[in-house]
Structures are given as structure tokens and as C-alpha cells.
Amino acid sequence: MIRLLLLFTFFLTLQPITAQTVCTLESRQKLDEMLNKLSQENLSSKSPNELVIAIGKEFLKTPYVEKTLEIPGEEKLVINLIGLDCTTYLETVVTLVRLVEQGEFTFESFEKELENLRYRNGENQGYPSRLHYFSDWIYENQKKGILKDITQEIGGESYGNKPTFMAQNPQYYPQMSYKENLEQIQNTEAAIAIRDYFYIPKDQVQPLEKNIQSGDLIAITTSMTTLDIVHTGLAIAKNGRIHLMHASSKNGEVEISAMPLSDYLQGNKSQSGIMVARLVSF
């Protein structure tokens, strides 16, 4: 009920910032406070992974709210820091890390960097240009030099990644009622299907977690053949084990998983393993 109320309030208070950006006043205030705080801290000696952890912790207890990017009409760059899902949490943290490395602490720089991260070729060219599939998100942001997919080099094996869920279920996506959007999403799915992807099966996560660092980006793969990734988060070391810092739909907030990542995966039959990416220094 609380999540539904937050989502309703979010849509009710959406305000245009530019022609292609919307943000609530509350979210703008939180972002400005965050940027001001980061600008005053001495973070120059921290690695990207260390920044991921420091900034990621700032959002602990933030409510989980889904589908905040799905607003009616023309595709907008939605900026929302008061309610996060697993992907927008990760995107927000990565964007702020990038700004710290650049020494840029303005709303406009956040807006530009988030758009670069969220969209194909770094530019909002409409609904199909958003990186809807997270395996595609990893691939495209590796091409931009933002991160590196390290899954294979730390012990991953081939992942048969051929997602088709969006094109097969357009009824769940209002924007897919437009033929051109559906066709472009089908093209995206076809492009993903011919790439080489790798994953670490969940029964291999514990033996290989020594190769995962705090601050790595975690994408949880699935046994469902029509999807690629079902959850995302940030690796964080706790008591000598790797846990997941993430926006949890189950518990309704950003949290650090009580169980180590390998145990967390074992508790969900549809979760088959993980992909791991690492930010590259700016």
C-alpha cells in the first residue's frame, strides 16, 4: 500500500525540468543535497568501487517503488531519488560516482550523465532507445567505456541469452502499442541474441566470490528463457562474504541482504546465477 501511494504521489508531482526531463520537487531537493554533500567531501583518493559503496549506502532505507520510468506520452528522462527500483538504484549510484570522478556537482551534469547511462548511444531518442534489457545495458555501457563486463574472466561460462519477453508481451507496455516501438524492440532483442554473454551459475558463486570486489555491479540471471536479468544490485563485503546491496521489492526498501549473495540466489528457483561488471575510472 505504501509503495502504491509513493508511486501515485510521484506521478502526481512530476514536474518538467527541460523538454525531455521530469523530476519531483522532493527528488530535486534530495539530489541537490546529495550533490552538495559529495562536493564537500574529500573523495579524490577513492577508487570507483569504493565510491560505489560509499554512495550506495547513502540510499539505504529508501523506499522501493517500481515502474517510475513508465510515464505516459513521450519518453522522458525521469530523475527520482525518493523511490527506487533495483535498476534505478544502480543507475543513480553509478551516475553519482561518475560525477565525483569528474568533479561535477550540478543538476545539469547529473541529468547529462544519467541520460548517457540509461540510453543507447547516450541519448534519449524515444522509448526504444532506453536500455530496457539489463544485459543490453551492460553491453552498451561497456562500449561507452563506463564499465567492463568481467564475468568471463572471473570464471563465468557461456550464457544463452535470447530475451523476447517485451516483444512477446506488448500488453504489459503501453508504449508498445505503437508499431514502430514494437519493431525497434524486436530489433534490439535480435541483436542481443547473437552476442556472446557469460554468467556464473549460482552453485559456483560461493567458490568464485573471492574474485568479486565490493562495489562491483551484480546482475542476476534467470532460468526463464524469455528474460535475461531479473534483478540487479551492488556487491558488498560483509563478515568475509559477498552480500547484495539492492532495492528489494520483497522488503520494500534499499537494503543489504541478510544472507550472502550465494545463499540469496539459492532461495529463488528462477534465479540462475549472476553477471558481474566493474566500473572503469573516468
* Number of helical stretches of at least 4 residues: 10
What share of residues are in beta strands? 15-25%
- The CATH architecture name of the largest domain reads Orthogonal Bundle
Low-confidence regions: 4-12
Topology:
Layout: H1 2-13, E1 16-18, E2 21-23, H2 25-40, H3 48-57, E3 77-79, H4 86-102, H5 107-118, H6 134-143, E4 147-149, E5 157-159, H7 165-168, H8 179-193, E6 197-201, H9 205-208, E7 217-222, E8 229-238, E9 241-248, E10 253-256, H10 261-266, E11 271-279
Parallel strand pairs: 2-3
Antiparallel strand pairs: 1-2, 4-11, 5-6, 6-11, 7-8, 7-11, 8-9, 9-10
Structure description:
Residues 4-12 have low confidence and may be disordered. This protein has helices spanning 2-13, 25-40, 48-57, 86-102, 107-118, 134-143, 165-168, 179-193, 205-208, 261-266, and strands at residues 16-18, 21-23, 77-79, 147-149, 157-159, 197-201, 217-222, 229-238, 241-248, 253-256, 271-279. The protein is an alpha+beta fold. It is globular and about 50 Å long. It folds into 2 domains: 2-140, Orthogonal Bundle (Putative xylanase fold); 147-279, putative xylanase like domain (putative xylanase like fold). Helix 3 crosses helix 4.
